[in-house]
C-alpha cells in the first residue's frame, strides 16, 4: 500500500495565492486590506519565530499586520487595556496574543477580553461554544488548517475512528469537536486521549486517523499505530542538536521514519501542520474583515 506525505507547505502556498487574490479584490473595490494586530509578550524564542512567520505571511498576501511588543514584566492590565483599544480600533479586524504568556497573566482573561468578532484565534468562549454547536464562528487556526489538509487530500472521515491525543483549547479540543461534528469532513467517532490516559497505545492502535497534539517529541512509535492509518503530527518541540546552526532541531510527536513506513498518510514536521496554521489565522482575519461571522 502506498504512503502519501501530506505537503502542508505546498498546500499553504496554494491558499496564500487565494488569499492574495481576495485582498486584490477588496482593494480594487475601494476597501482597505485586512488588519491583524499581534501582541507578543517577552522574548520566547519559539514565539518570536511564530510571530515573525505570521507577519511575513501577512505581508506576502497584502494584509496589514501590526506587532505590539511587551516586556515579560508587563502587567495584565496593560495587556487588557491594549486589547480594549484594539477592540474599538476600526482599522483592526483581528486581535491575537501569542502564547505562552508569563505566569502572572491569565490566558482566560486575555481570551475573554478580545471581542468575539475580532477573535481570529477562536479562543474566546463565544467562538469555542459556537464551534461546539455547529454555528458560524472563528475556528482555532491549527484545527482549521488540519481540516483543510484532510479535505485537500480527500481523506475519508465519515464513520472512521479518530483518536486525538491532547485536549488543549488550542488544538486537541477543537480538533475533536470538528471531527465528530455532523459535517464533511467530520462524522468520525472520536476518542480523546490525554496525560491521564492509561495505556495510550491501546487507543492509538485502534485509530484510523491519529492526531497527536502533545508536545512530547517522538512519543508515538510505530508499535502504537495501526497499519494504513492517517497520521497528523501537530507537535513541535525544539530539541538540542549541536549539528545544526541554530543549535536545535524541530521534532514532532510522531517517530516519523518508523511510523511513515506503515501509514497511508502522514504530515512531516516541519512542513506539515505548521504552515496551514498560519493560513487558518489569515483566513479567519479575512472573514473578520468581511464581517462574515458576526454582522
Ligand atoms: P498543551 O501543553 O496545552 O497540551 C498538551 C496536551 O497533551 C494536554 O492536553 C495533555 O493532557 C496531553 N499530554 C501530555 N502528555 C501526554 C502523554 N504522555 N500522553 C497523552 N497525552 C499527553 O499543548 P498544545 O498547545 O495543545 O500543543 C501541543 C503541541 O502542538 C506542542 O508541541 C505545540 O508546540 C504544538 N503546536 C503546534 C502548532 C502548529 O502550528 N503545528 C500549533 C499549536 C501547537
Write a structural description.
It is a single chain. With 295 residues, the protein is an alpha/beta fold. Helices cover 39% and strands 16% of the residues. It is built from ten helices and eleven strands. The strands form three sheets. It has a six-stranded parallel β-sheet. A three-stranded parallel β-sheet has the order 3-2-4, sandwiched between helices. Helix 7 links the parallel strand 5 and strand 6. The radius of gyration is 19 Å and the shape is globular. The structure holds nicotinamide-adenine-dinucleotide. The site of nicotinamide-adenine-dinucleotide has 24 residues, from helix 10.
What structural class do helix, strand and pairing data support? alpha/beta
Beta fraction of the residues?
Answer: 15-25%
What is the topology, as strand order, of the major beta sheet? 1-11-8-7-5-6
Report mean pLDDT, rounded to a whole number.
97
Task: Find the count of extended strands (DSSP E, 2+ residues).
Answer: 11
Poorly predicted ranges (pLDDT <50, ≥5 residues)?
none
Number of helices: 10
Shape field:
globular
Please give the radius of gyration in angstroms: 19 Å
Small ligands present: nicotinamide-adenine-dinucleotide
For the termini, the CA-CA separation is: 48 Å
Largest sheet: 6 strands, parallel
Helix % is: 25-40%
Question: What are the secondary-structure elements, in order, as H or E?
Answer: EHEHEHEHHHEHEHEEEEHEH
Amino acid at each position: 500500500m502506498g504512503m502519501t506525505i501530506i505537503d502542508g507547505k505546498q498546500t499553504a502556498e496554494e491558499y496564500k495565492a487565494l488569499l492574495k487574490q481576495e485582498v486584490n479584490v477588496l482593494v480594487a473595490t475601494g476597501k482597505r486590506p485586512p488588519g491583524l494586530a499581534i501582541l507578543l509578550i517577552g522574548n520566547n524564542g519559539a514565539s518570536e519565530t511564530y510571530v515573525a512567520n505570521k507577519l511575513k505571511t501577512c505581508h506576502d498576501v497584502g494584509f496589514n499586520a501590526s506587532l505590539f511588543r511587551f516586556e515579560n514584566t508587563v502587567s495584565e492590565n496593560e495587556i487588557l487595556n491594549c486589547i480594549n483599544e484594539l477592540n474599538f480600533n476600526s482599522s483592526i479586524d483581528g486581535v491575537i496574543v501569542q502564547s505562552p504568556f508569563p505566569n502572572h497573566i491569565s490566558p482566560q482573561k486575555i481570551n475573554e477580553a478580545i471581542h468575539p468578532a475580532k477573535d481570529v484565534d477562536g479562543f474566546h468562549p463565544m467562538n469555542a461554544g459556537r464551534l461546539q454547536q455547529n454555528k458560524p464562528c472563528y475556528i482555532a487556526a491549527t484545527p482549521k488548517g488540519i481540516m483543510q489538509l484532510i479535505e485537500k487530500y480527500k481523506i475519508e472521515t465519515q464513520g472512521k475512528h479518530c483518536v486525538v491525543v491532547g485536549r488543549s483549547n488550542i488544538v486537541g479540543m477543537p480538533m475533536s469537536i470538528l471531527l465528530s461534528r455532523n459535517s464533511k469532513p467530520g462524522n468520525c467517532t472520536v476518542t480523546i486521549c490525554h496525560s491521564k490516559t492509561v495505556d495510550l497505545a491501546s487507543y492509538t492502535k485502534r485509530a484510523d486517523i491519529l492526531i497527536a497534539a502533545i508536545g512530547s517529541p517522538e512519543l508515538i512509535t510505530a508499535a502504537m499505530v495501526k497499519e494504513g492509518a492517517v497520521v497528523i503530527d501537530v507537535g513541535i518541540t525544539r530539541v538540542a542538536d549541536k549539528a545544526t546552526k541554530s543549535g536545535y532541531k524541530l521534532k514532532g510527536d510522531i517517530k516519523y521514519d518508523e511510523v511513515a513506513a506503515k501509514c497511508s498518510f502522514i504530515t512531516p514536521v516541519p512542513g506539515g501542520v505548521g504552515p496551514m496554521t498560519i493560513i487558518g489565522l489569515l483566513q479567519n482575519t479575512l472573514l473578520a474583515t468581511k464581517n462574515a461571522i458576526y454582522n
